[in-house]
Write the structure tokens for this entry.
Amino acid sequence: MDHLRTTDPSKIDFRSKFELTDKTIIITGGTGLIGRAFCEACAQFGAHVVVVDRGDPEALAQELEIRYGRKMFGYRTDVVNKKEVEQLLEAVLKTFGKVDGLVNAHQNKSHLIFEPFEQVSEDNWDTVVEVNLKGTFLMCQVVGGWMANHGGGSIVNIPSTYSVVAPNQNLYEGTSLGCPAAYSASKGGIDALSRYLASYWASRHVRVNMITPHGVWNNHEERFEANFARFSPMRRLSYNHEVAPALVYLLSDASSYVTGDNLLVEGGWTVW
Ligand SMILES: NC(=O)c1ccc[n+]([C@@H]2O[C@H](COP(=O)([O-])OP(=O)(O)OC[C@H]3O[C@@H](n4cnc5c(N)ncnc54)[C@H](O)[C@@H]3O)[C@@H](O)[C@H]2O)c1
């Protein structure tokens, strides 16, 4: 987009900078806890949302289409399968003719996610790293590559607090929860990949940023919620609808000069 060459802010419609009107936004993990809030927020700000998931993305896309009276699209895709990712892009271009935004909010939750580090199998490690990191790589390569060749766009990837700091193991005391090393390692890879691409594509107008959510409430066990409150400056978990506004900012023209950033929506977890 063209940027107005002025020092006079009265010439700027700041509210409209946050609009996503008529932008086509692809959101992976779109039916997940945070993905659902991302889809809803983008729809409310005027976007055509492409809900992508391994589960049932069509149902949510239809629901959004009815609610907002605008074309939405649901596409079942396994993000680690390059052929499927290419088919997704093809289908999106056929329907909307362009892509303006890509959000990678998928994640692998292995059934072995809480096993002790000493017992992690190679298969389990590979699965977590493949879905989280390779899935993000393929989506960026295929969709971001298209954007770089067609005037630009905005990509938002999701690392984790646990690629910024190590998990505080006391958080899990007395609970059945935990955080595996493969998760942290895969998320560290997403952070590095995002910074790499921010630099690589900056001159081709593809901005690449990150959102780091933390402790998003999902009917957690009581003890975990109590532990979390003790270690969090804000003394509570967050909600998926508190993460989504950050996405609107990063996808919209409001963040036109922001790239390579990691926006922490973590209630101050890492400040102390
Ligand atoms: N929930 C949190 O507290 C939290 C905290 C920090 C970071 N995150 C990150 O935020 C993102 C969203 O988290 P969430 O809590 O909504 O997760 P979630 O588990 O609720 O949703 C993830 C979605 O990804 C989909 N998915 C899994 N593998 C896939 C594949 N191969 N192809 C396509 N889709 C696939 C799943 O079907 C699911 O709908 C993830 O990257 C997660 O690591 C979450």
About this structure: Residues 28-29, 31-35, 53-55, 77-80, 105-109, 131, 135, 158, 160-161, 213-216 surround nicotinamide-adenine-dinucleotide (CB under 6 Å).
